[in-house]
Amino acid sequence: MDQVSPILVNNVDVHVINSCNLYCHGCNHLANYGHGAPFKVEELVDWIEPWKDRLYFKRISLLGGEPLLNPDLKDICIAYRKIFSPKKTKLRVITNGILITKCPWLQELIQEYHVHVQVSLHVFTGKTKNEKLINRVKEGLALLEKWADDAVRPPDTKWGPYFEAKEKLNFQVFYQGAGTQIKPFQHDDIIESKKHCSCPTLQLYNSNLYKCAPIAYIGDVLEKFGREDDPDWQPYLRYEPLTPDCTDDALLEFMKQQPQPEWVCKMCPPYANVILSDEREIFQS
């Protein structure tokens, strides 16, 4: 079967780095366990190039980890903008805001390349508050607002403001335990797991497509911990992502299944397993 028209993807997450400057327990991207160095421009372009004509990305989210820790982030955004027009694709950077004041080049990304910046206000929450960091993020938000107000909107786009702040930061923790002792939930109620899923977003990682963040990044974390032989994790480590050389039929089937519960959902709890934003620690103990 020949697939002519690109398949619509409302959002795809792309990690520019796997580590973070915060250690939020329950992070569904596992960035609190710091499992990798920043990725280079060439790598991230190579990841997405095979998919650009097969999938229509309505929004691409560059994140991690903390994306502003990647010294190549500006060049990554520019490279992606050369591939994806702002008239068709919203390019979003998701940051915790701590480093905004140290990244004045964000002004150029916002004003010249129509990059949207979303700030997750983690430092405003958590058991321990750091007033110095809170004030730093507030300064960063003020800069973003000024840069956004001074930006010329591109014609025919409906992306709204060029930055936004996200305050709802409760986490649905997908694993049991913590640190080197994390374990999957093992059950058969994938429908209930899917109902409580807080991270259903398609992931692009190492050129491959993954159903969600937990299944995309768990292998790296277990390898870091020396736990890749843990029998409880073996079914999930055998998960096969969709590779760029897949057939059109395989791509169609994968995207059809993307919003549906699947066997990998057994990894996650079949009930609410939420850590409220004010009840979790965000700094390394």
Structural description of this entry:
- This protein has 285 residues and is α/β, with parallel strands linked by helices.
- The protein has a single domain, classed as TIM Barrel (Alpha-Beta Barrel), CATH 3.20.20.
- The chain contains eight helices and eleven strands.
- The strands form three sheets. It has a seven-stranded mixed beta sheet. The chain has a two-stranded parallel sheet with strand order 1-3. Strands 8-11 form a two-stranded antiparallel ribbon.
- A hairpin with a 2-residue loop joins β9 and β10.
- α3 packs parallel to α4.
- It is globular.
- The protein starts with 6 loop residues before the first strand and ends in a 10-residue tail after the last strand.
